[in-house]
Amino acid sequence: TSNKTGHHFHKWEVAYMYWSPDGVENVVMGINGQFPGPTIRARAGDIVHVQLTNKLHTEGVVIHWHGIRQKGTPWADGTASISQCVINPGETFDYRFTVDRAGTYFYHGHYGMQRSAGLYGALIVDVAEGEKEPFHYDGEFDLLLSDWWHQSVHHQEVGLSSKPMRWIGEPQALLVNGRGQYGCSMAAHYGNSSLSQCNITGNEQWAPYILHVDPNKTYRIRIASTTALASLNLAIGNHKMTVVEADGNYLQPFETNDLDIYSGESYSVLLTTNQDSSQNYWISLGVRGREPQTPPALTILNYRTTSASRLPLSPPPVTPRWDDYAHSKAFSNKIKALDHKSIPKPSPTYHRRIVLLNTQNKMNGYTKWSINNVSLSLPATPYLGSIRFGLQNAFDQTKPPEGFPGHYDIMKPPVNSNTTTGNGVYMLGYYSTVDVILQNANVLKENVSEIHPWHLHGHDFWLLGYGEGKFTKSDEKKLNLKNPPYRNTAVIFPYGWTALRFVADNPGVWAFHCHIEPHLHMGMGVVFAEGVQHVAKIPKEAVSCGVTGKKFMTGSHLG
Ligand SMILES: O=C1O[C@H]([C@@H](O)CO)C(O)=C1O
């Protein structure tokens, strides 16, 4: 075996194109004529180099490499206004970064709502040569989950930022590897469906991605969710799954009949093909946490011992009811880190604890999401450059709040619903240990509190636990400091809290936000920065806009 660093060079062009993700022709944001974009496959320690050219006619673009920590390359994180200037039409930007750890990742647009427009794809990192995964499998499948609207993202963005706000509603279809079915169902013939039976030859862009398996083998199914809105549950007829990986980190294996997956998360499950091999089985994905108006996504587990076009004997497995939160919490609480050299043990103490209250608010008649009563509105100049070069006029210099008033009633709609906007930064001590308590609350409407999956850029965190109601000092003893999962995305349940801990050891500026795209668009995020003075050699192209761009034109040097 050799220890040579692999180098993966990809030339990509992003463009809108006609596509039919669910049987209805539409316009998607594709890469090199593909939707979803090409899968990147590398080994741990390799360098990935994507030379991205923007072929959109009138929009900028960036791509975020979700789950890749960008150690030493914070300008390659692909967050508009945070890590870089947008790539203008006709321009090319070089994303060059190390994939330092094996796992299931993905990439997606991180400017406006371009992820919802279809700008996403899979990024799979295998173990380094000579290394082994801590589990065995004979074959592998990659499922990238998303949701799809017929209305364009431009239309959606205008609706969300209008007065009164027009909500995007539920998706028209759920997609597996960019494929779904609108207005028909592959399982209509069992009865109890108002939809007609789909007529699919298999060559359609919207034909399901079928998993072809041999009997008595073990398969690794990698599942990642880049949905704009939907929380999902995946179940496979007659088969159990063993969950072994989450967000690029190994788990203590556990068996399950169905798997919850929130936007921004990834899992690997092992499936043993030990059922009647003369039959096929449904794979079904249902909506969680919001009253569904979208039929389940369906595809087929095909035993090669029978024809792939033969439909399963029994109807698709029924995923848990959308509001069965007890089921979701039980699943989340089963997730524990594997004792493995690749996963650091949690720091036993913290230096700073930031409590982030999540509320839906009004601001002068507009609807916003706010964190401690501040709704994020990103600045014109990317923070990475403005903080590195000390340009204080580029964003709010007031420190964002560390918490919220103790008397705030999380069970009621906000009393003072008039929120504020801001773009201040949480400056974290370099190498300090930071605790974040994400506190959920009631939305503007009585008796409603929603699910929000929070995603942290540039780091993994230890997910120390979940609880009900308002987090109090006495909840500290409930935190798991023994084997918390090490992840980059964590959900907050309705009216509950979620506790995280991470070490601020990655020089750069990092987004931390709700991964529901319309929610981020409405301000549901914060910005962390640490060790920015240690960032050297920022490529010019990353900061040639706003006040950092002007700095260049006066001939100053960078880095
Ligand atoms: O941000 C949101 O707005 C709607 C609703 O609260 C108002 O229409 C919804 O379900 C969200 O998640």
UniProtKB/TrEMBL annotation:
Cofactors, names only: Cu cation
Domain Plastocyanin-like intervals: 14-126, 143-304, 416-532
Which cellular components does GO assign to this protein?
Answer: extracellular region; plasmodesma
Under catalytic activity, the entry for this protein gives: 4 L-ascorbate + O2 = 4 monodehydro-L-ascorbate radical + 2 H2O
Q: Does the keyword rRNA-binding apply?
A: no
Alphabetically ordered keywords of this record? Copper, Disulfide bond, Glycoprotein, Metal-binding, Oxidoreductase, Repeat, Secreted, Signal
Q: A single Pfam family, by name?
A: Cu-oxidase_2
SUPFAM superfamilies attached to this UniProt entry: Cupredoxins
Its quaternary structure? Dimer.
PANTHER family on file? FI03373P-RELATED, MULTI-COPPER OXIDASE
Q: Which family would the database say this protein is a member of?
A: Belongs to the multicopper oxidase family.
What protein name applies here?
A: L-ascorbate oxidase
